[in-house]
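Input structure tokens:
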């Protein structure tokens, strides 16, 4: 810090210099609705990681950190309490309001560290955003998942379509159940890669088997775990990624969708959540995921993502 420099300005400038601009560039490239869902997911993950039960706890922690960092705590406390609390910005962020202004990127970085909250954009979001090819996504999967899906998990990032398809293992129940039990964005992406790739190897009938697990994982993560506000928009993004039926190009497909089933399923999962609040967290997660799959197993004509023929 230079002599006579305001400590708030000094530390703010220090943070700005260390801002992870690659992380921000990835974030900015997401389409608006995907950006909002991504924001809600990552902010909730950050709160859980830090052990914050409420946004109020986060604000108190920010205020406390500012007291120790700056020589004028009154000014900082007033900024946090009056401006942030009254505007409800952090609450909006937790509910999926996307970040648009450069000032907000700096503000979040100053308070929490932008990369600490949002990190890099997962390949699942990039696939929905049509930023990457399916084989690129497969290459980025953890080794343990590659071993479940492919004959050999050692392959390049630029496989031809034929080589990529020929490397797929045959679908089996243990493979699908193992991926489903992981309950993460890696497993969600793995199931989506399989769902798309097996169209070429086994046709729509085979892909439907994977699609059920993909849809169940979608319900678990997006309804139970994150309670995503833009559930319909996210559903449509996944539908179009599947319906395009192409590994390397995008088709402009228009198809009439009946999404009432999605909201019926959402209501079902929410009812499970409300009835399981007193159960141990790990037991609750296992119970919910099993009940979602049992629910779908009983519906032989369920459309899932409407991607393939029943």
């Amino acid at each position: 810090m230079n002599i006579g420099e305001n400590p708030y300005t000094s530390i703010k400038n220090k943070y700005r210099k260390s801002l992870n601009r690659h992380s921000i560039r990835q974030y900015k490239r997401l389409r608006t609705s995907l950006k909002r869902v991504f924001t809600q997911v990552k902010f909730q993950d950050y709160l859980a990681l830090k052990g914050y039960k409420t946004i109020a706890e986060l604000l108190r922690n920010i205020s406390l950190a500012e007291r120790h960092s700056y020589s004028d705590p009154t000014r900082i406390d007033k900024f946090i309490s009056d401006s942030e609390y009254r505007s409800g910005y952090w609450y909006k962020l937790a509910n999926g309001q996307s970040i648009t202004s450069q000032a907000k990127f700096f503000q979040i970085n100053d308070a929490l560290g932008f990369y600490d909250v949002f990190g890099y954009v997962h390949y699942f979001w990039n696939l929905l955003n049509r930023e990457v090819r399916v084989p690129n996504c497969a290459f980025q999967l953890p080794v343990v998942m590659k071993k479940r899906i492919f004959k050999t998990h050692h392959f390049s990032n630029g496989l031809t379509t034929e080589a990529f398809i020929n490397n797929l293992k045959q679908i089996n129940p243990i493979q699908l159940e193992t991926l489903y039990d992981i309950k993460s964005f890696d497993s969600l992406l793995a199931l989506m890669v399989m769902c798309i790739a097996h169209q070429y190897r086994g046709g729509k009938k085979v892909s439907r088997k994977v699609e059920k697990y993909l849809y169940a994982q979608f319900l678990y993560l997006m309804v139970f775990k994150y309670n995503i506000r833009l559930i319909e928009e996210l559903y449509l993004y996944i539908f179009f990624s599947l319906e395009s039926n192409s590994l390397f190009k995008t088709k402009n497909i228009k198809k009439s969708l009946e999404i009432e089933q999605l909201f019926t399923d959402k209501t079902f999962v929410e009812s499970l959540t409300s009835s399981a609040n007193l159960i141990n967290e790990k037991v609750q997660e296992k119970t919910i995921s099993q009940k979602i799959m049992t629910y779908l197993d009983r519906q032989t004509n369920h459309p899932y993502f409407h991607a393939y023929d029943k």
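Residues 123-297 form one domain. The chain has two domains: 7-118, 123-297.
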